Amino acid sequence: MLKLSAMAQIICIANQKGGVGKTTTAVNLSAALAVCEKRTLLVDCDPQANATTGVGLDKSHLIKTLYHGMIGDASADAVIVDSQIEFLKVMPARVELIGFDVEMMDRPDREQALRHLLKPVVKAFDYIIIDCPPSLSLLTVNAMTAADALLIPLQCEFYALEGLSQLVQTYQRIKSGLNPKLKIAGVLLTMFDRRTNLSHQVAEDAESHFKTLVYKTMIPRNVRLGEAPSFGQPILLYDAMSVGATSYFALAKEILAANHTGHA
Ligand code: ADP
Ligand code: MG
């Protein structure tokens, strides 16, 4: 029986670029919050299902997935499964989620499927973290419509800020229509390499665009972070002493502190 509390804070991790660290952040931030004994739900909203395998779930053993929940064929409780970490539960994805856009085409509430699915469980968690696909498709729109806050990972590479205006436009459209309470939780610099000028340049550009919205915590490029998914383990299990693990733990602390003071 899940303990009820105040409503979870729902954070959606989005950037339509692939390979910027969305899934790595979703998996490891969720795990770090859970290690801090926050009841956390990781929602895998990407048909590639990298977050699902990244926390060690075997997709072939799943009965119902997020797809079934979002099209109305399964309740949230029927989709949620346990993970290897005590306070972390998962709404897993599988490849059938690709069919979601087509399945929902004629439904008037197609942007609100995830919001409706999560509604009965928001009091059972402290945090709900949603991993988005690398697009601004209906799945990402659902994630932003269900969320309280948007976390934008920015990879410290060339063109890091390119395409961000489309993301921000989508955010503004959803905020002015379906989800007025949506805010930007923060911009997270990922794969930061302090030895390169480029990383520092991206950090400067991000700060001049997003000002105080840029998280103080930066996620460095760290080989162990890249290895962990192939072992089906969040970094805190795979190598708790790595700089990747301490960085995601620091991000969790920063988010917890921001919520505590009501800024987040
Ligand atoms: P996205 O979900 O945005 O497509 P991922 O989180 O899957 O991006 O990251 C893309 C690739 O980069 C993955 O192989 C991942 O393991 C790796 N990666 C992500 N963050 C880091 C990091 N900080 N250091 C090293 N490798 C990383
Ligand atoms: Mg991903």
From TrEMBL:
InterPro entries from the UniProt entry: AAA_dom, DNA_Partitioning_ATPase, P-loop_NTPase
Gene3D superfamilies reported for this sequence: P-loop containing nucleotide triphosphate hydrolases
Location of the AAA domain: 9-184
Domain of life: Bacteria
SUPFAM superfamilies: P-loop containing nucleoside triphosphate hydrolases
Signal peptide: none
Record protein name field: Chromosome partitioning protein ParA
Lineage: Bacteria, Pseudomonadati, Thermodesulfobacteriota, Desulfobacteria, Desulfobacterales
